[in-house]
Every structure is written in structure tokens, then in C-alpha cells.
Amino acid sequence: MDEPERPEDPGTPLPFFVYGTLRPGEANHDLFLRDRTATEEPAHLPGAALYDGPGYPYAVDRPDGEIRGELITPHPESYTELLTALDHLEEYVPGDPHNLYERTARTVIRTTDDTPTLAWVYLAAPRVAARLRADGQLIEDGDWLSRR
């Protein structure tokens, strides 16, 4: 399987892989995504593990892990506004060492047809990831919705 090419520009329009409160049926889905998406489809992120946080999850790099979520493709006319809103929600500022999350382009796999797709993913920032690996609560099945 060929890897999609990673963008150099952090504003490049890509779909988003969501795995927590932005998933359909969760609190932030309606607040941020309602009427802004063209498609929402099941997908998974290989090479990452999911940790429970204070009301929301964190994705952390882990070669043997996999996270389940949704691939969200915004309407083109909503993209810039949505990118700004999601960066704000995730407290992500490019280059800020105090970020909780880092937005990075990763290959996710569409569940319906196993198609690899490059998407923006908010991963735990390095200092947060180190703390989670040391003493965080791993979500074993990689699906934040299963915690209910």
C-alpha cells in the first residue's frame, strides 16, 4: 500500500480523523461539525494507542496500537473556519511548547474499503504523551466510545 504524501503546509485542506468528543453522538460533534461536513465515515488509525483523559481521550504513538474513530471531510466552504475552531478546541498553536495536542498528518484507513487516506489527527503533545505512557489509563480496544 502506497503512503499518501504528507503536506508541508499546516493549512493544507485534509479530512480530520476524530476519535473522542468530536465523533457522532458525542458532545462536541454537534457544536463543531453539524452542517460543516460533506462525509463522516468509520476509519482507524494504525500505530497509535488511546488513553483516557479528563473528559476526553488522547492519541499517542504506539507501533502495535490502533485507534477507532471517524474520518470527517468538511465542506470546502467550511474548511478554514472549522480548522481554526478545531485548533482552538484542542488548544493547538503551531510551535507552542505548552500544547496539549499536536496536529499532524497521518495515514488513516477507511473501514469500508481499507483505503489509506491522509488526514489531520490531534495527537498528545510530547510531554503529555510521555506522562500518559508512564501512568495513563490505556483504552485497550482503541475505541473511546467503548468506555461507556
TrEMBL record:
Q: Which domain of life is it from?
A: Bacteria
InterPro entries, A to Z: AIG2-like_dom, GGCT-like, GGCT-like_sf
CDD domains registered for this protein in UniProt: GGCT_like
Q: Where is the Gamma-glutamylcyclotransferase AIG2-like domain?
A: 16-145
Per the UniProt record, one Pfam family is GGACT
Q: What is this protein called?
A: Gamma-glutamylcyclotransferase AIG2-like domain-containing protein
Identify the species of origin.
Streptomyces incarnatus
